[in-house]
Specification:
about 300 residues, alpha+beta, Uridine Diphospho-n-acetylenolpyruvylglucosamine Reductase, domain 2, Uridine Diphospho-n-acetylenolpyruvylglucosamine Reductase, domain 3, Enolase-like, domain 1, 3 domains, five-stranded antiparallel beta sheet, 10 helices, 14 strands, about 35% helix
Length: about 300
């Protein structure tokens, strides 16, 4: 199918883009990578009057560390994060673990991280990580700029706090300390499908005891989630010796936290290939394995740090 007719503009500054988006109340859409937009237009599920192409705005093609936060501009492509060297420390490791689950290499070379926040899809890896890390979404509107915390940004399937005429200029993530271990595991029916469930786990550990846990859930409700109840169950828990995530005992703290995530935090919907019982089981298992991955990552970092001091 071909998309319905539309007008096209390619502004060269953020004010020009915002002006185009808010011009005359037209149904406008932003084009960055086009990973989702172009498909929806070809299927005519979206019929914009105007497409605003932001790819010629150089200030949006920027990623930098500001005040111990990572600021990712609206034109930074997914593939940038495939390298663990792109972002320092555990945050870089977490982003590199997640990005390989996004679509395919050609799409990752064009699609953008910030574009995921424009759509707010429940199965977005980036959006769940933003929830887990209390990231901020920065928007520029016709009158002023504003910042919205991730916890207040997602309102439902493809519904966000972004107002008509606003442009998302960047997303800010806090950097993670070296006392942090990270994990990200995704389960899907086939490589070509959206995740049935994915989990991002961030564990801050001191002297072998978890002082803080952060867990983001992908496609476990009608929006990205943070698993607060599962996190609370881990505070003050010893991570114990190295474990294989596929052989965790039933009474292990990570197994228990995974069950809590599936029963108390998640609100999954039945799908054609996965009923509710299966989906809750998958959430529990993937969450437990991801927590184990994060604990093992912490041990590895501590080992490397000690080895470097010798």
């Amino acid at each position: 199918m071909k998309p319905a007719a539309f007008d096209y503009v390619a502004p060269r500054t953020v004010p020009e883009a915002v002006d185009a988006l808010g011009n005359g109340g037209r149904k406008a859409q932003v084009l960055a990578g086009g990973q989702s937009l172009l498909l929806e237009m070809h299927l005519e599920r979206i019929r914009p009057d105007l497409v605003v192409d932001i790819n010629r705005i150089p200030e949006l093609d920027d990623m930098q560390i500001i005040d111990n936060t990572l600021q990712v501009g609206a034109l930074i492509r997914h593939h940038v994060f495939e390298s663990t060297q792109a972002v320092p420390g555990p945050l870089g490791s977490l982003l590199s673990l997640a990005v390989v689950n996004i679509a395919h290499p050609p799409i990752r070379s064009r699609g953008t991280m910030v574009g995921s926040f424009g759509w707010g899809h429940p199965a977005s890896e980036w959006c769940a990580i933003a929830m887990a890390l209390d990231a901020d979404i920065q928007l520029q509107g016709p009158q002023s700029a504003r910042t919205v915390a991730a916890r207040d940004y997602f309102h439902g399937p493809l519904k966000t706090a972004r107002r008509p005429g606003e442009l998302i200029t960047s997303v800010r993530y806090p950097l993670l300390s070296e006392h942090t271990g990270v994990g990200f595991i995704e389960h899907r029916r086939t490589h070509f499908c959206f995740a049935q469930v994915a989990v991002a786990a961030i564990l801050t550990v001191h002297d072998g005891v978890i002082s803080e846990a952060r867990i983001g859930l992908v496609n476990c409700a009608d929006r990205p989630l943070r698993a607060h109840a599962a996190e609370q169950a881990l505070t003050g828990v010893e991570i114990g010796p190295p474990m294989d995530g596929y052989q965790l005992p039933k009474h292990h703290p990570f197994t228990r936290s995974g069950r809590i995530a599936s029963e108390q935090d998640a609100a999954p919907l039945a799908e054609p290939y996965a009923d509710l019982e299966y989906r809750r089981h998958a959430i529990a298992v993937v969450a437990a394995r991801t927590l184990c991955q994060a604990a093992n990552d912490h041990r590895s970092r501590i080992g490397e740090a000690k080895g470097g001091c010798q």
